[in-house]
Amino acid sequence: MKKYQHRLELQVRDYECDIQGIVNNAIYQNYLEHARHQFLLSKGVDFIDLSSKGIDLVVVRIELDYKLPLRPDDAFWVGSNIEKISKIKIGFNQSIYRLNDERLVLQAKVIGAAIDNAGKPCRTTTLDSLFD
Amino acid sequence: MKKYQHRLELQVRDYECDIQGIVNNAIYQNYLEHARHQFLLSKGVDFIDLSSKGIDLVVVRIELDYKLPLRPDDAFWVGSNIEKISKIKIGFNQSIYRLNDERLVLQAKVIGAAIDNAGKPCRTTTLDSLFD
Amino acid sequence: MKKYQHRLELQVRDYECDIQGIVNNAIYQNYLEHARHQFLLSKGVDFIDLSSKGIDLVVVRIELDYKLPLRPDDAFWVGSNIEKISKIKIGFNQSIYRLNDERLVLQAKVIGAAIDNAGKPCRTTTLDSLFD
Amino acid sequence: MKKYQHRLELQVRDYECDIQGIVNNAIYQNYLEHARHQFLLSKGVDFIDLSSKGIDLVVVRIELDYKLPLRPDDAFWVGSNIEKISKIKIGFNQSIYRLNDERLVLQAKVIGAAIDNAGKPCRTTTLDSLFD
Does domain C6-131 have CATH number 3.10.129.10? Predict the structure, then answer.
């Protein structure tokens, strides 16, 4: 198993499951976003605070490979790594593992960028500081 | 603009937007799923009905390119095309366009498969019939 | 059936249903909120616009009576009436009916108030204008 | 502060907040449902298991008083008490408190019932056992 810079443990809630009895596809994006924001927060980058200053962190591309569905009450953890892609883009490699048997549930590549009020990509010292 | 086999018009609801004032990333998967299910239904394939018979249609991979954020009350449409990838996999090419100016909002490639009760991929005549 | 000042037709989306195969309880609040915002918009009161000016419309109390569960693909409509409760409170009486047989699905009483940046209730001419 | 038979600690996730920068009204119902299911599970009553046996636990009425909005990253806890209302109805009194200052966020009364496959209220020994 890969090493991760950040690890977040969570548990499936019943309302996150759909008619098939498994976690709905879109919900995994919630898990991944929450893990990314907690990861950034642990490094001193506050998504909410940046937004109030007119800098929005947005996702520009996401790739998700669904390997194994999570079910009600499953405990799992999200592992996240971050890498610098360019002056204005950062990448996250994220995986979700089921806690009881460490089986891979989902793999994700997420590319994010900072944009200003006008919707233009912008370079911020805040994100630069992630890779110092 | 590409031609689409299926078109669904929708409108952003305020609760789908997050603190940044734009539709949350995960919500686009809701839009895309709803469009796929309506598309399949229009071709006689009922997601709910299949599920009750022990055949689940699941997403195995999804790629999303976010081009332009949708905002409160924006009207938009989802265009969907379907293609056969293998005996057990089907692919959807889906795009979302803002209605008032036809600007591209999001592009998606979605690969789905049918799985049986044991979680194994299975071939169903129902899906085969999509490509007759 | 009562008369309503505002009527909004919607359709259940599969992802709104949970493991029991029926629309999840919390989702009805989404439907009701969307109907209220559309209703206010039709009377020239823009929830988003007010928020950007530092005035938040918030719900202070809600009562929901669940009569009949909605299921996948059910079409339904939300009927809404508004009344003035006090200088700073407004009330909504909302009902949801299934479209094909007009059976009552849910009844709701919602009390809302306008609050300012400090979280204090405030009187706005915008809301006053609703009852001129 | 009242005593509660069950206590569940949670934390607000950014995607649960809407344009106003506070947790969306409907999301509190998610929190309350999750707390009720965990509470029932701690007493040996499994919502999912019952559902697979054809017995659905449904909410028939809910009253919510919103006292104080939760914001991004707020930690909070849900306190839940259960009481028998009749042979087929049970009641939950639930409150949400912000963790750092124990201020009351929301108060709820929830009335639930068990229904069978035909949608009729039914008495189950499982629920009876809650009050032995």
Answer: yes
